[in-house]
């Protein structure tokens, strides 16, 4: 399985907002510069995140975007699910009717178990966890 650029960039977008959560709204151009992601790409990614109520936007002079919830209340799994429109290793895991072999396929169980394990792990990691891990890793490196 390979995550799309959309999910990888979306995760970096949310993590950047988490790092600056207490600073109020952040302009998308600043995030794009810090993350080295094109502004136009971030503008497209942020739309479904706003619809899913993970991000809120503010207009005006001090406008920008910020997390709608604290970083400890948003999991990586939630963000990936919004941006990937589901997460699966094979199509038969979510839609067994698409495969004529799904009822007798011995490997479908394997793909379902692996998909469930990925979901479980991503759902267990919050953006606050990522921030803590980053600080711990930097301290271990002597930074």
Topology overview:
Layout: H1 5-19, H2 28-35, H3 39-51, E1 55-58, E2 64-67, H4 76-84, H5 91-94, H6 108-123, H7 127-140
Antiparallel strand pairs: 1-2
Helix pairs in contact: 1-2, 1-3, 1-4, 1-7, 4-6
Structural summary, described in words:
The protein is mostly helical and 143 residues long. It has a single domain, classed as Arc Repressor Mutant, subunit A, CATH 1.10.10.10. Helices cover 55% and strands 6% of the residues. It has a two-stranded antiparallel ribbon. The radius of gyration is 18 Å and the shape is elongated.
List keywords for this structure.
about 140 residues, mainly alpha, Arc Repressor Mutant, subunit A, two-stranded antiparallel sheet, 7 helices, 2 strands, elongated
Low-confidence stretches: none
Strand content: 5-15%
* Whole-number tally of structural domains: 1
Query: Spatial order of the strands in the main sheet?
Result: 1-2
**Topology-level CATH name:** Arc Repressor Mutant, subunit A
What's the oligomerization state? single chain
- Rg computed from alpha carbons, rounded to a whole number of angstroms: 18 Å
Elements, N to C (H/E): HHHEEHHHH
Termini, distance in Å? 34 Å
If classified by CATH, what would the architecture be? Orthogonal Bundle
Relative helix content: 55-70%
- The CATH first-level class comes to Mainly Alpha
């Amino acid at each position: 399985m390979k995550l799309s650029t959309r999910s990888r960039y979306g995760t970096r977008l949310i993590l950047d907002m988490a790092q600056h959560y207490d600073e109020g709204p952040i302009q998308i151009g600043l995030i794009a510069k810090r993350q080295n992601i094109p502004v136009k790409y971030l503008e497209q990614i942020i739309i479904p995140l706003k619809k899913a109520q993970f991000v809120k936007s503010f207009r005006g002079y001090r406008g920008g975007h910020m997390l709608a919830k604290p970083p400890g209340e948003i999991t990586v799994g939630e963000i990936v699910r919004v941006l990937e429109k589901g997460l699966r290793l094979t199509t038969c895991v979510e839609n067994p009717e698409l495969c004529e072999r799904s009822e007798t396929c011995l490997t479908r169980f394997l793909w379902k178990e692996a998909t469930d394990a990925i979901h479980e792990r991503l759902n267990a990691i919050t953006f606050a966890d990522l921030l803590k891990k980053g600080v711990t890793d930097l301290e271990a490196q002597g930074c």
